[in-house]
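Course exercise 7: structure representation. Students receive a sequence record and must write out the corresponding structure in token form. The form below is the worked example handed out in class, using ARAD1D13442p (526 residues). Read each field label carefully; the graders check that inputs and outputs are placed in the correct fields and that the protein name is recorded exactly as given.

STUDENT ID: A-19
EXERCISE PROTEIN: ARAD1D13442p
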Amino acid sequence: MGKGIGNAAAIEKRKMAPLVVILTFLTSFCGFMFGYDTGYISGALVVVGTDLGGKELTSGNKEFITSATSLGALIASVLSGTLADLFGRKWVITGANVLFIAGAIMQVCAHSLWVMIGGRFVMGWGVGIASLVAPLYISEMAPSRMRGRLVVINVIAITGGQLIAYAIGAGLSKVDNGWRIMVGLSMIPSAVQMIMFVFMPETPRYLVSRGNITHARSVLQKIYLNASEPELNDKVDDLVMYTRDETQEGTSWMARTFKSLKDLHCVPANFRALVITCGLQGIQQFSGWNSLMYFSATVFESVGFSNPTAVSIIISGTNFVFTLVAFLIIDKVGRRRLLLFTLWGMALGLVLNAIAFHFLPPLDTTDSGNTPITGWAIVVIISMLIYAAFYGTGIGNVPWQQAEMFPMEVRGIGSSFATATNWAGSLVVSATFLTMLHNITPTGTFAFYAGLCVVGEIFVYFLYPETAGLSIEEVQELLTGGFNVKESLQRSKQLKVYYAEDKSDDAGFSTTVQDKPIADNLVKRN
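STUDENT ANSWER:
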């Protein structure tokens, strides 16, 4: 055991192949579509006018349109983990693009409210599948010490999609049926990814789970440049050891699914992973971010800004920039520390926002920008910038590291539960946000979300262990016997020392007798 895991740690010092970067960026088209959908609907809702059914949209109509995508994504996310286990990660991602394109066509051609809602619902299926399988694919392809950064690239694509959608929306705000052009443009990245992904490899962990050891070894050789034969063999042996019971020859997919469900809830380590991942996804959504993304243009128009979509670009741009910051520091600072630092900052931004709205006139989401801009409206923007900065650095990306928490036999179904939690939260937030603004005022609404950020801080402090630098298999060991927050921090420190011993990632690296005790100590079982 010690020798195999030790060499598995040694292979992580190898140079990462350019192929991994290419795969990550191509997979991140899924994230781009996720973000673009969030961004374009915000701008579309303020310019759609009477294009859908010949009359202006009510607040209820807007909530229906936005929540349709969340509902479709919720349903799809429940199923997509099982689909990824049945058909493979790459083919499920390919299929998601078909749904993206079909949903976009329906929306472009929509001349009634319900066709628009239907198109949003179909696109939601694509978003739900992609939001689960894309980070799963990247996590299983990535070397351990780069996994956090590479998954964050998908989140960068989400924020980049939002930013580009806002920019296009601002440019087309005065164009007749410009919102249809916005929707139509979304088909381009979907078509590109659908074609290119046909030629991409499947993940080695999935291949091992299907019994295709030779192909898995070939993919690993492409991921780790200049890896020695013993290192590759030990890495494959580790994957086989952790996936040896998963193929279950002779059983139906239904039987395997039920067994995975049972293992997810009855095996303590798996259930702890489920609590952590669902908790983080819930915190992300109930911090209120998606409500801001879906309805930011509506809110800014109501407080007096004549081009609210352009103002939304500032908020989205801030989120994008600070997601880049997260990319640079997530594997160095660690996931846990990022969350503990940023959740309180989000709460601060929301509290300032609540105070600003207290001094503004009553909000009217059907207003067309006739309200004069005041100093408190500027405070609203500043507070949202603070909120967006802390969100982009922390909770906006850390929950999508969810695949690293689960062993292979429950990774698909576990990721489904976590992603479904995200979309269930998005559905609730998008379906209730405007109603909350009217019923408990903007001050009460943003104060409520601030309180939930504080709850999230407590959750992370007591239950979320540090996983930066650990292999997916080591994370599973860590959760055996408890959440082991203190032990995770010790392991993280040891790994930083271990990887720092060879910053050059030299091609001649080998695990010596002196190296072996270090590697063995890093992965000692609980």
